[in-house]
Specification:
Distance between the termini: 27 Å
Shape: globular
Largest sheet: 18 strands, antiparallel
Radius of gyration: 24 Å
Structural class: alpha+beta
Length: 455
């Protein structure tokens, strides 16, 4: 299955757009606010593409060079289940804010306000996001399930956070210890995947998006339905989880299986099941280098292999770095073949502690040429502020945009299409002919014009 190059570029743009947010994220459970007064620009390098005639790349380079997102973002406990992000700024054209907007996100609620939508608020309930993003895939053939995972990273973090809280082995002390079989059975009751409640419904759509391009969706969801069988298979004699600690090294045994091992900076999780599948995860972090790998296999055949290698992350005592990141996805159960997703990046900060200046440049390397093809520049002034900088706001409009249907779509078009069109005029006047041609062709090819009723 051949993916349209513009779908790939869209996914890349969404991926790299998230990176600066991670750079300012709080990683503890406190509530300080990180304020980022920033500018964000997308860069296009035509020479990095193998086929210069595939699109009007030089026109895109010129147009994107005129655009930037600028404003102030306040971030609190980002990526936690109760993260808060408030942004006030807009899309700038030649340095002038031509499309102002305000974004407010708290827990699963998102609100967007802009003159382009008559200064009204649009409400987005993120619990319905993955289900919404699967609709274009099912009905229009658009691979929207992939950018959905990047656009809502809180979903994966919520999953990890909830499971981590309920598997806090430190409850049983430190050093050598045993986690009882009875406690493990209680965990299984919690982890067991059942429909009918909000968390498990979200879990279902999360894994559906994650595994859509593989033949493993049913396998993983079935495994989540039978965690009790999995536990009985690994620990038939109900000995519990036996944890042995030697210095900084640890070994965790369930029955006859070593399910977890920590040696220095490397952690390995291995979970075979009664159906012959083996789930394994390995992570190594040393200084600015991070290597992580997930493998789902059966009888030594790799059904799915996801590997992430990052070299050159900012670490303690380092103010400037250059690095490389590469994500590869392979396996016999993949329906599509994905080229490695590789980036070169440079990051600089004026000091380790805030306030400080921070700059991040990242370039996606085209898999055919190995050259920078698309990237971005993120420049920010960062400072830490007290929690009361952010406070709850009242919003009257609570109709969830992700419940979009034909009736809602017609209402939105009637209310907002004229003001959106008017707000686009300054950008259209600066848009080269090649960009207009490529954009119209994309909208026609994907059927978006037909959906909007303006074909």
């Amino acid at each position: 299955m051949k993916k349209n190059v513009w779908f790939r570029l869209l996914a890349v743009c969404l991926c790299i757009c998230m990176l600066p947010v991670f750079a300012v994220a709080e990683t503890n459970d406190g509530t300080p606010v990180t304020r980022s007064d920033f500018s964000f620009r997308v860069n296009l390098h035509p020479e990095g593409f193998p086929d210069q005639s595939a699109a009007h790349l030089e026109d895109w380079q010129a147009f994107l060079g005129k655009l930037s997102i600028e404003g102030v973002a306040d971030v609190q406990s980002f990526l936690s289940p109760y993260s808060r992000v408030y942004f006030d700024g807009g899309l700038c054209l030649n340095g002038e804010n031509k499309l102002p907007f305000v974004y407010d996100g708290y827990y699963s609620y998102r609100y967007l306000r802009s003159p382009a939508i008559r200064n009204e608020h649009l409400h987005f309930q993120m619990f319905n996001f993955f289900q919404f993003m699967l609709k274009p895939y099912y009905y229009m053939g658009l691979p929207t399930h992939l950018p959905a995972l990047v656009m809502y990273p809180e979903a994966a973090m919520e999953l990890l956070t909830v499971y981590w809280i309920y598997t806090d082995w430190t409850t049983y002390g430190e050093g050598d210890r045993v986690v009882s079989s009875d406690y493990l059975k209680q965990l299984v009751e919690y982890f067991q995947f059942y429909g009918g409640n909000d968390f498990n419904d979200r879990l279902y759509y999360f894994f559906t998006c994650l595994l859509m391009d593989t033949g493993l969706t049913d396998v993983v969801l079935e495994r989540l339905n039978t965690v009790d069988v999995w536990l009985d298979y690994l620990d038939p004699d109900q000995q519990g989880l036996i944890i042995d600690v030697e210095g900084e090294n640890e070994s965790w045994m369930l029955g006859e299986t070593e399910v977890f091992r920590k040696e220095g900076s490397t952690c390995t999780l291995t979970l075979p099941d009664d159906m012959g599948y083996v789930y394994s995860f390995t992570r190594t972090r040393e200084g600015g280098d991070l290597d992580a790998q997930f493998v789902l296999s059966m009888e030594e055949e790799e059904l799915l292999n996801v590997t992430l290698d990052i070299d050159g992350l900012l670490s303690e005592g380092v103010l400037s770095t250059s690095g490389h990141a590469e994500l590869t996805v392979s396996g016999s159960e993949l329906y599509v073949e994905y080229a490695p997703l590789a980036f070169d990046f440079q990051a600089t900060r004026s000091s380790e502690a805030m306030p400080c200046s921070f700059t991040l440049n990242a370039d996606w390397l085209h898999p055919d040429t190995g050259l920078p093809a698309m990237g971005y520049t993120y420049e920010a002034e960062l400072q830490e502020l007290p929690p009361d900088v952010l406070f709850d706001l009242e919003y009257d409009h609570q109709d969830d945009f992700f419940h979009l249907n034909e009736s809602f779509l017609n209402e939105y078009k009637e209310r907002y299409l004229p003001t959106i069109a008017l707000s686009m005029v300054p950008f259209l006047l600066e848009m080269p002919a090649g960009v207009i041609s490529d954009t119209v062709a994309f909208l026609e090819e994907t059927g978006i014009l037909a959906v909007l009723g303006i074909e």
